[in-house]
Structures are given as C-alpha cells and as structure tokens.
Amino acid sequence: MQTQTDNIALFSHVSIDYPLKKYTLRAVTDVTFALKRGAITALVGESGSGKTTLASSLIRCISEPGRVAEGEISFFGRDGGEIRADLLSDKEMRAFRWSKVSMVFQAAQSALNPVLTVREQFTETLEAHGEKLPKEAREARFYDLLGYVKLDAERVLASYPHELSGGMKQRVMIAFALLLDPELIILDEPTTALDVITQNYIFTLLKQINRERGISMLLMTHDISVVAKFADYVGVMYGGRLMEYGDVRTVFHRREHPYTAGLIGATPSIIGDISEMKPIEGSPPDLLDLPKGCIFAPRCPKCRDICLTAEPPMREFADGSKGKCYFFREADYAG
Asked: Which residues contact 29 (CB under 8 A, 6 or more apart)?
C-alpha cells in the first residue's frame, strides 16, 4: 500500500477552465494521479491534450485566463508536511515556486531576460526569494551549478543569452531550476528546437540530476522514444483527460489503451520500415464540441456501441496502473 511518503505531489480530480466571453473552455477534466518521489514522471499526448496546462497548474503558471475550477493539488515536502498548492496566496505561491518546485520552460531563449547577463539573472532570483548571501558564497553557488551542467561558469555568467548556443541556454535554464534546491522540477518539452545529439545530452544530464540529487521530475513531451528511455512513470493525456497511467515498462509493453497503442504505432523506428508506421486516423477532439461517450471513440479502432453512449470509468489496479477504457485490462479487472 502506498502512502504520501511515496508521493511528492498529488493531483486529485483536477479540472481546469478557460473562461472566455461567450463560453468556458474546459482544458483539463477530472484528472487524478500522483507524482512519485524521486522518480521521473512523463505526460505524453498530442498537442492540445492538456499536459502542459495540467503540469503548470502546480505552480500556477497556467496561461491567462486559465484557472483550476475543481479538485485539489497537493505537494508533500521533505519535512513530511502537505502544502495545498491550489490554495496558496499569490505571495505564498511566489515563495513556493523555485524553492519547492521549479520549471524548465520550452524555449530557453524566451525564458531568459535578453538584457541581463546570466549572473544578474541568477542574482535577482536569489534576492527575490530572500537569499542574501555574501558575494563569495553566491559566486561559489553559481560556479558549482554551472560546472555541474558542464558549462564554463566564468564565461557564461558574464554572457547575455544571445551570446550562448541553444544547448548552452537550456543548460543555463537547468542550472537556474536547481538554484534554490527544489524538490521537484517541471520540464516542458525541454529540448525543443535542439539537434538530436544535444537533445540526448540534455536528457542524460537530467537523468543524472534525478539520480544523484534525488530530485523528482515531471516531463511534458510528445516524444514517445524519450519517455521510454528516460522516464519511470507515464501518464497518457487526450482531450484534457488522463487516459492511462502506470510505470513506463508496463504501459509501453502491454499497450492496453487503444490511444496509447496508437501513439506508439505512430512513432517512427530508426531500424524499422517507415511503411510500418500507423498514424492515428482522424483529428484530436474539439473541446467545445465533444463527442458523446468516450472522447477517443471517433478515432478508436476498437470502438463498440457502449463507447458511444457513456464516458468510460477510470479502472484502477493494485500495481498502481489505471486506464480510462471499458476494456482496459479486462482479464485483470475485478470491478
């Protein structure tokens, strides 16, 4: 039996809305899952599936006018106490970000201030969180972190973002995320626009940080191959819903949910014939005009009559796996 000492964060029946002038768009619907302490958990899915919106809600970085409409978001720190992240005041959330949970954003060029050097940006962040270290101690921390991500600290600290390559900027962002010794790092497509070799280097570095420092990670990506290689657990998102969750080996080996199987089947192999790829037919759902029944039914090759009448329940199992499908692990399901 798992306890909250096993988890660093818990999303419980979370729904996220975007109130607009004429209607309200529900981007995430009734999602429940836990982030395991010390593990790398990935959220995968097509664009618009809700993975970034869900993850960003932990540190209240949802794009305006998005808001958590229902559910609870809890964080469990090293001290064993629970923090209800969804109930924090703006002041409390500013202190919570970076010190407890930090984030590596999708585009490092946009995340870094173009008119400040890396040293100035690191210093501002420390001071904003009340870390008034002597200059020598502050510099020692900067050098330690940049050295840890394999950067020339002396050169990088004096540089402006435009003077660094894409891979260097992303490693600066990783060092930034480590600056206040957080317990969890959110990674939003952290290797976008980087070449394949640099991508692999960045993910290898992140895995090293996870293992050596015990920092939990939540990764959002559409790249199944990255998840298979680097993640411990995976949640599969579709149309704002969590369709499947479990440890990576179980999810990718069993391929029980039709959408998960479709994502894997649409992923190219470097050794296979490209003709063996099987794209998922159809398009992702319009969140303002959802189909009746299972949201994936219009694209599902295993769709049956019951799938068109009512949304399937989330089936949960003793090993921690769960799947939102009437026929998910039917032989194992006790009801």
From this structure: 15, 239, 240, 241
64 Cβ contact list (under 8 Å, min separation 6): none
- Beta-carbon contacts of 294 under 8 Å, excluding residues fewer than 6 positions away, are 300, 303, 307, 308, 311, 312, 324, 325, 326
Residue 12 has pLDDT above 80, yes or no: yes
Sheet with 67-76, strands from edge to edge, namely: 24-36, 7-19, 67-76, 82-84
CA torsion 100-109-43-199 (nearest 10°) is -110
Question: H or E segment at 155?
Answer: helix 153-157
Give the whole-angstrom CA distance, residue 251 versus residue 45: 14
Span 115-140, mean pLDDT? 93
pLDDT digits (tens, 9 = 90+) for 217-258: 999 998 898 999 999 999 999 999 999 999 999 999 989 999
* Domains within the chain, CATH numbers bracketed: 7-100+184-195+215-332 (3.40.50.300), 110-181 (no CATH)
Q: What is the mean pLDDT of the chain?
A: 92
pLDDT tens column, 273-330 = 666 678 899 999 999 999 999 999 999 999 999 999 999 999 999 888 999 999 997 7
CB–CB of 271/75 below 8 Å? Answer: no
Tell me the backbone φ, ψ of residue 188, rounded to 5 degrees. Answer: -100, 100
Q: What is the DSSP letter of 279?
A: P
pTM of the full predicted structure?
A: 0.92
Amino acid, single-letter form, for residue 144: D
> Taken in order 75, 148, 235, 232, is the CA torsion positive or negative?
negative
